[in-house]
């Protein structure tokens, strides 16, 4: 008898078979318990839907995790194990509760128009708004002949078109919106679109930046940046609605937000692009890189590789959005060149000195990132099947 390439005696085989049968039984019990938990979560979802409560309940989660960790410890089970399992289960809850739909915060809105509504982010927001009971109309590239009819009587117009055409579209097409209509955008830079909206429309205006891609299963725990424009009391319902979807709203000054995006998006994505470009030019053998990879390298390769599974236009839009990003990217290049010079000069002490300087600057974040990445790396390893 063999298990993979290991030979086993008949006695060992029999013992293992018996124990594995018992494990199968326990796993089947777990499955039934999971089914029970999902049914209860569905009931919680219905209660929350009626009461207009958010999907994500951080205090309940923290209290529950703390209790289960203590109980785990007294049973000789690792607290981290129960925490991992429960967090994974709660991710499932977010998805399940979403399908029940959401309370409609403002039933007086007769029409929501999403410009660019057939794009990926537009589709996601259309789905969330529809699940919340709003009548959603889409206005995409081919619908402009009917624009007046589509926009007539809109209570909310949400602009989600490529950055490069956002301001121009707002200025040239959205002049005649109803006075009380909310004009909002989902663009990943905020100053210019906000200014364009304020100049074009005299009613309520707000800039939003969802800090996630369209492939998130649910908005629970995702961040949406809010840059206030005008008449915030008129769009308070929209922010409350987004919070009910589970997202965390982070208010920011548009200029500050855009400056952060030069590092968080433009520079980050650009360096991922160059990393991929370099692998391509070096004709790296990805198969063997993966074979030799440690979990952190696998994660890094996944982060870079996923870029190239998406639309080049989308990333071009993000990277080219702000002229000022050039400064952040050039600084990076200069730092790279400086570090390379140190390497060429064999200045090992210099490297260690700078490393310490940076570590000190990271401060408490460094150990925090280390422990966060530890569980990510363990998940990466769990995903391997051989
Ligand atoms: O208790 C709730 O409010 C739930 O929605 C259930 C549940 C869970 O799966 O246990 C899911 C999401 C919340 O963030 C907290 C807990």
From TrEMBL:
Residues 110-373 form the Prephenate/arogenate dehydrogenase domain. InterPro entries: 6-PGluconate_DH-like_C_sf, Chor_mut/prephenate_DH_T, Chorismate_II_sf, CM_dom_sf, CM_II_prokaryot, CM_T, NAD(P)-bd_dom_sf, PDH_C. It comes from the Bacteria. PROSITE patterns: CHORISMATE_MUT_2 (PS51168), PDH_ADH (PS51176). Residues 10-101 form the Chorismate mutase domain. Its EC number is 5.4.99.5. It is an enzyme of class 5 (isomerase). Transmembrane segments: none annotated. Gene3D superfamilies: 6-phosphogluconate dehydrogenase C-terminal like domain (1.10.3660.10), Chorismate mutase (1.20.59.10), NAD(P)-binding Rossmann-like Domain (3.40.50.720). Pfam families: CM_2, PDH_C, PDH_N. SMART domains: CM_2. Keywords: Oxidoreductase. SUPFAM superfamilies: 6-phosphogluconate dehydrogenase C-terminal domain-like (SSF48179), Chorismate mutase II (SSF48600), NAD(P)-binding Rossmann-fold domains (SSF51735). This is chorismate mutase.
């Amino acid at each position: 008898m063999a298990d993979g390439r290991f030979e086993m005696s008949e006695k060992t085989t029999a013992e293992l078979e018996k124990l594995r049968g018992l494990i199968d039984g326990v796993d089947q019990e777990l499955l039934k318990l999971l089914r029970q938990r999902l049914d209860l979560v569905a009931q919680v979802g219905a209660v929350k839907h009626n009461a207009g409560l958010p999907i994500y309940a951080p205090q309940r989660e923290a209290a529950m995790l703390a209790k289960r960790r203590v109980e785990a410890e007294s049973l000789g089970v690792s607290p981290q194990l129960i925490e991992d399992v429960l967090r994974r289960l709660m991710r499932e809850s977010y998805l399940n509760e979403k399908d029940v739909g959401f309370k409609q915060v403002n039933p007086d809105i007769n029409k929501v128009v999403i410009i660019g509504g057939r794009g990926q982010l537009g589709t996601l927001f259309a789905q969330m708004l529809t699940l919340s009971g709003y009548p959603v109309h889409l206005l995409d590239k081919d619908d402009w002949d009917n624009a007046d009819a589509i926009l007539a009587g809109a209570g909310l117009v949400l602009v989600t078109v490529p950055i490069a055409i956002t301001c121009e579209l707002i200025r040239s097409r959205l002049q005649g919106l109803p006075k009380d209509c909310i004009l909002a955008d989902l663009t990943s830079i905020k100053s210019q679109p906000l200014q364009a909206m304020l100049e074009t429309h005299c009613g309520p205006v707000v800039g939003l930046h969802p800090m996630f891609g369209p492939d998130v299963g649910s908005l629970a725990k995702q961040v949406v940046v809010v840059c206030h424009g005008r008449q915030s009391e008129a769009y308070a319902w929209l922010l409350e609605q987004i919070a009910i979807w589970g997202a965390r709203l982070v208010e920011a000054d548009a200029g500050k937000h855009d400056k952060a995006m030069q590092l968080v998006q433009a520079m980050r994505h650009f360096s991922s692009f160059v990393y991929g470009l370099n692998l391509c030019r070096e004709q790296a053998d990805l198969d063997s890189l993966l074979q030799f990879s440690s979990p952190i390298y696998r994660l890094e390769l996944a982060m870079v590789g996923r870029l190239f599974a998406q639309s080049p236009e989308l990333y071009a839009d993000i990277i080219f959005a702000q002229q000022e990003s050039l400064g952040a990217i050039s600084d990076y290049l200069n730092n790279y060149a400086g570090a390379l010079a140190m390497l060429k000069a064999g200045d090992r002490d210099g490297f260690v000195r700078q490393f310490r300087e940076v570590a000190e600057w990271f401060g408490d974040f460094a150990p925090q990132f280390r422990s966060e990445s530890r569980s990510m790396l363990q998940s990466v390893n769990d995903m391997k099947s051989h």
